[in-house]
Design goal:
Number of strands: 10
CATH architecture: Alpha-Beta Barrel
InterPro entries: Aldolase_TIM (IPR013785), DapA-like (IPR002220), Schiff_base-form_aldolases_AS (IPR020625)
Strand content: 5-15%
Family: Belongs to the DapA family.
Order of helices and strands: EEEHEHEHEHEHHEHEHEHHHH
CATH topology: TIM Barrel
Keywords: Lyase, Schiff base
GO molecular function: 4-hydroxy-tetrahydrodipicolinate synthase activity
Structural class: alpha/beta
Radius of gyration: 18 Å
Distance between the termini: 49 Å
Protein name: Dihydrodipicolinate synthase family protein
Helix content: 40-55%
Strand order of the largest sheet: 4-1-10-9-8-7-6-5
CATH superfamily: Aldolase class I
Number of helices: 12
């Protein structure tokens, strides 16, 4: 039976050795996985946008995928983002994810170049059919890829590849959610990838979120999900309001150095970002710490 993601799924940052951005920090991977699982999250999603997946070498992505599966030890599902700019590399990484024991793969649209809907359908169906018994999630982030997985495209892919079990939807247009859900049915997953819209997405029928800010502060995401399941919508909305403040403080993931620095404040060392990204300077670090502290957030490793 295929594992279907739900709840709070974290697209983890990639722990790297200080001074060597091509080297995964194995201890950092273990500490990050343990930290997140201890806070009650329901899944891990390595090699995605937040994980700098498209800046990592292919072999580094494979190493990270293997390590996360190993360090998680089956405690929560692990779905590896395996999408690349071309079909051949995507198939290679997807088969690797299957072979190392992941619970599924998420595939972003081919990016940079614009493709027809038929091109995109052929790409996704070809990848899915290369691993017919392995769960596949589509990953729609059209503002970044220039290629939109429309509800109609999703339906056409599902019609030909029954191991496509869900979609991560990283877009602000909530109006499309009911249409996606209509095509997905009850046995597939719709996961929002917009942290500021987790609560309204749940109200529209999403079964979970893939939340970048949950790398640093998983607690409000878990509280929101638990409150929603209990029907405590006032508490769910309160947690969503806090998440919005966190997202704005951490620059909505546009600069991943904010996530990595904030994780240091929480006592989790994950190293530097991949170039051409830059680390924060001293003034930016001090300002970030001050703003997070003003929100009353847990900061176990005060450095200011």
């Amino acid at each position: 039976m295929m594992t279907i993601l739900k709840g709070v799924v974290v697209p983890i940052v990639t722990p790297l050795k200080r001074g060597n951005q091509d080297k995964i920090d194995e201890d950092g991977v273990e500490k990050l996985c343990n930290f997140l699982i201890s806070k009650g999250i329901q899944g891990l999603f390595p090699c995605g946008t937040t994980g700098e997946g498209f800046l990592l070498l292919k072999e580094t992505r494979k190493e990270l995928a293997s390590l996360v599966v190993k360090k998680t030890r089956g405690r929560v599902p692990v779905v590896i983002q395996t999408g690349c700019i071309n079909t051949k590399s995507t198939i290679e990484l997807t088969k690797h994810a299957r072979d190392v024991g992941a619970d599924g793969a998420a595939i972003v649209s081919p990016f940079f170049y614009r493709y027809s809907l038929d091109d995109l359908k052929d790409h996704f169906v070809t990848v899915a059919k290369s691993v017919p018994d392995f769960p596949i999630y589509l990953y729609n982030i059209p503002d970044n890829t220039n290629n939109d997985i429309t509800p109609e495209l999703l339906k056409s892919i599902i019609d030909e590849a029954n191991n496509v079990v869900g979609i991560k939807y990283s877009h602000f247009d909530l109006r499309r959610i009911p249409e996606y859900l209509g095509y997905l049915g009850e046995n597939r997953a719709f996961l929002t990838g917009v942290d500021e819209l987790v609560y309204p997405s749940y109200m529209l029928g999403a079964c979970g979120c893939v939340a970048g800010n949950a790398n640093v502060f998983p607690e409000p995401f878990v509280r929101l999900y638990d409150a929603f399941l209990k029907g405590d919508y006032i508490e769910a909305k309160r947690q969503q309001d806090l998440i919005i403040k966190i997202a704005h403080t951490l620059k909505r993931g546009a600069h991943l150095c904010y996530y990595k620095m904030a994780l240091q404040f929480r006592g989790v060392e994950v190293g530097d970002v991949v170039s051409p990204q830059k680390r924060l300077n001293k003034e930016e670090i001090t300002d970030l710490y001050r703003k997070l502290k003003s929100l009353g957030l847990p900061l176990e490793n005060p450095i200011c």
